[in-house]
Amino acid sequence: MPPLDEFARIRAWTQDRQPKETFELAGVSLGIGDDAAVVNGAPGMQWLLAVDTMVERVHFLEETMGDADVGYKALAANVSDIAAMGGVPKHALVSVSAPPAWNAERIGRLYDGLYACADKYGIAVIGGDTTSAPAHLVVSVTVIGTVESGRAIARSGAKPGQFVFLTGPTGLSAAGLHGMLAKSDAESDGRSKSNPKLNPVPSRLAQAHRRPSPSVKAGRLLLESGWGASLNDVSDGLASEAWELAEASGALLVLRESALPVSGELASYASEQGKRPLDWVLYGGEDYVLLGTADPRHEEALKARFREEGLPLFVVGEVEEGTPGVVLETPSGARKPLAKGGYNHFPEG
């Protein structure tokens, strides 16, 4: 590929990647190519805006993520934030800071993954920025979504008497990362052929880490039914997100260990590795399922609606009166405070 300047690269990565109808349906008046994008508003609707940044060696590793996977996941993380409000993702702005190792071909593959995610969720990529970087790739994505005025589902709606639910199992992404890192380390020092614990990582676990599936459909169902009282996406770990709900709502969340969903692939892999699946379930992160609460009067109807749509829903606990926080109820009925844990970019100390 001949050398390309900044604007030629932008055209190469973005021109004619999406049909005109995508922009028309998303209300785009002016997209990529000017100083700013112009997007028409919708009567009776509110805009939702979310931004996430992925930094090489912090959020992703070359050993575990393909170039296209990085682009897909960078957008998917933002889509999940829109889903956690019950909204619909519409537009994306993408900023890429590329070091020398990320040449035009590699960035092109990154955009392949990003556009694959955009097309899956009906998102118009309408602009952004590109710069050089000294050592590591940085990708920052802003997603703009819509939600009916006054109806966005916040974290602060959990109240005593409600049940706690998950829209999917957690821990898969962390287990996938563990397995891919172990395999990479073993291959680098020649142990992979002699160690039975280094079998290929189950594809579902690896896929959960590389290309997560934000729960947009579940979020919309919860909003449209009017039964979702509070909502949060599981990005930093189930325990961490439960604490966010508890603190935002001023309530006590009780999670029942026996009710937490554990996928068969996760259970089998954890057994092979001599690990406790519960550790990944509670503290893994990057699963992008939804954690929320709802009134028990709607429990059966909500389960039925999810079944009709082919979506999972797991009741995993209750909201109670008490000091805001999270406790874990063991199978024996004993309760213990649940540490926040999960991923934290700037841990105290």
List the helices and strands and how they pair.
Elements: H1 6-14, H2 20-25, E1 28-30, E2 38-39, E3 45-55, H3 67-83, E4 88-98, H4 104-120, E5 124-132, E6 138-148, E7 163-166, H5 172-189, H6 203-210, H7 216-225, E8 230-233, H8 238-249, E9 252-256, H9 264-273, H10 277-283, E10 290-294, H11 299-308, E11 314-320, E12 325-329, E13 335-337
Parallel strand pairs: 4-5, 9-12
Antiparallel strand pairs: 1-2, 3-6, 4-6, 7-10, 7-11, 8-10, 9-11, 12-13
Report on this structure.
The chain is an alpha+beta fold. 36% of the residues lie in helices and 23% in strands. It has helices at 6-14, 20-25, 67-83, 104-120, 172-189, 203-210, 216-225, 238-249, 264-273, 277-283, 299-308; strands at residues 28-30, 38-39, 45-55, 88-98, 124-132, 138-148, 163-166, 230-233, 252-256, 290-294, 314-320, 325-329, 335-337. Strands 8-10-7-11-9-12-13 form a seven-stranded mixed beta sheet. Strands 3-6-4-5 form a four-stranded mixed beta sheet. Strands 1-2 form a two-stranded antiparallel sheet.
How are the strands of the largest sheet arranged? 8-10-7-11-9-12-13
Distance between the termini: 48 Å
Classify the helix fraction into a percent range. Answer: 25-40%
Order of helices and strands: HHEEEHEHEEEHHHEHEHHEHEEE
Structural class per helix/strand content? alpha+beta
Mean pLDDT: 92
Alpha plus pi helix count: 11
Structure at a glance:
The protein is an alpha+beta fold and 349 residues long.
What distinguishing features does this structure have?
single chain, about 350 residues, alpha+beta, 60s Ribosomal Protein L30, Chain: A, Phosphoribosyl-aminoimidazole Synthetase, Chain A, domain 2, seven-stranded mixed beta sheet, four-stranded mixed beta sheet, 11 helices, about 35% helix, globular, Thiamine-monophosphate kinase, metal-binding, transferase
